[in-house]
Amino acid sequence: MAAPRSCALWGYYGRGWSRVMRGCRLPGLRSSWPGSPLGARLLSQEKRATETHFGFETVSEEEKGGKVYQVFESVAKKYDVMNDMMSLGIHRVWKDLLLWRMHPFPGTQLLDVAGGTGDIAFRFLNYIQAQHRRKQKRQLRTQQNLSWEEIAQKYQNEEDSLNGSHVVVCDINKEMLKIGRKKACAQGYKTGLAWVLGDAEELPFDDDKFDVYTIAFGIRNVTHIDRALQEAHRVLKPGGRFLCLEFSQVTNPLVSRLYDLYSFQVIPVMGEVIAKDWKSYQYLVESIRQFPAQEEFKEMIEDAGFQKVTYESLTSGIVAIHSGFKL
Ligand SMILES: COc1cc(O)cc(C/C=C(\C)CC/C=C(\C)CC/C=C(\C)CC/C=C(\C)CC/C=C(\C)CC/C=C(\C)CC/C=C(\C)CC/C=C(\C)CC/C=C(\C)CCC=C(C)C)c1O
Ligand SMILES: C[S@@+](CC[C@H](N)C(=O)[O-])C[C@H]1O[C@@H](n2cnc3c(N)ncnc32)[C@H](O)[C@@H]1O
What we know:
Blueprint: H1 37-49, E1 51-54, E2 57-60, H2 61-75, H3 79-87, H4 90-102, E3 109-113, H5 119-142, H6 148-156, H7 158-162, E4 166-171, H8 174-186, E5 193-197, E6 210-216, H9 225-235, E7 236-247, H10 253-275, H11 278-290, H12 294-303, E8 307-314, E9 319-325
Parallel strand pairs: 3-4, 3-6, 4-5, 6-7
Antiparallel strand pairs: 1-2, 7-9, 8-9
Helix pairs in contact: 3-10, 4-5, 10-11
The structure holds the ligand COc1cc(O)cc(C/C=C(\C)CC/C=C(\C)CC/C=C(\C)CC/C=C(\C)CC/C=C(\C)CC/C=C(\C)CC/C=C(\C)CC/C=C(\C)CC/C=C(\C)CCC=C(C)C)c1O and S-adenosylmethionine.
The site of S-adenosylmethionine (SAM) has 20 residues, from helix 2 and helix 5.
């Protein structure tokens, strides 16, 4: 199955949000001269240049998107349970930490790219609501003369509690988004949340629209990481923040040995037993090893135009949070 292109819009809703949408861009036209020796050399160089990796496999750039699509289409239904099993719940702590580092203010417009089943978006909404409740409690303590009805009403309005904050979950995979939307309904998230089908490399949003851009465990799967980073920079408002949670390089040699053993000997087995899908989990562990280490990824973020780029390694460098600003 071919991956859908970024311009497809799916389930995009929410007050006033249509203004951030923009049209699809056509891919650039290229010409070559295959008849001439120079043309033939250019073509063969181009062929090599358009090769990439899918885990440890070498594939053409055109193929990679479709293969990644199949992986997440296949694992979507078991995605959440697999994450808890593989990490013994530790992925939840990493995601909570991402939110604490973001520390969103009331009114924050967040774009969560490769947002999948909504883990970052739900944490964002919870964070904003908890912040609002704390503020409300402080205010209520100072307003002693309110009736019970007035107090109850203050606690009821969910939309008020978001203070204009909004999160857009953008992902290329329909199946992942479908699970995310079901979870949102089941858990009662009604406002401040939109789901968009789109490609990190060609985001279907206007320039300068978001305060924060997040991508958690997503950028590793993108064919052209540099393009995704440039798109992140484009859609952020001046002053906006880029935050990426991704697998990284383990620094401690002993942890590294154990982690490798665990990754290659245990994770694909779990994938087979729980999700009936060895290959997708083999891809997961292989793709982790192909992803650049902390310093190299920092430089890529800087190359995309971000400033004040920093990172924090978590759990011995199994993952890292990279942060940068569009200034
Ligand atoms: C297809 O693409 C994807 C699909 C998805 O479902 C998800 C993603 C994106 C991924 C995530 C959101 C998170 C996924 C999480 C991981 C890949 C795992 C991350 C790993 C950890 C947090 C733990 C790291 C483990 C170590 C440092 C090594 C410790 C391991 C051992 C002591 C065991 C070594 C293993 C053997 C010798 C093999 C034989 C053992 C057994 C059969 C027993 C099984 C053992 C366990 C279950 C132990 C697991 C232990 C821990 C988790 C301990 C945690 C320790 C620390 C944090 C230091 C996606 O892209
Ligand atoms: C490991 S999941 C991460 C989901 C979620 N962010 C989380 O932390 O649980 C990776 C996600 O990246 C998405 N993805 C892969 N390539 C993409 C691309 N080019 N554009 C947007 N999303 C992409 C997949 O569909 C999948 O939902």
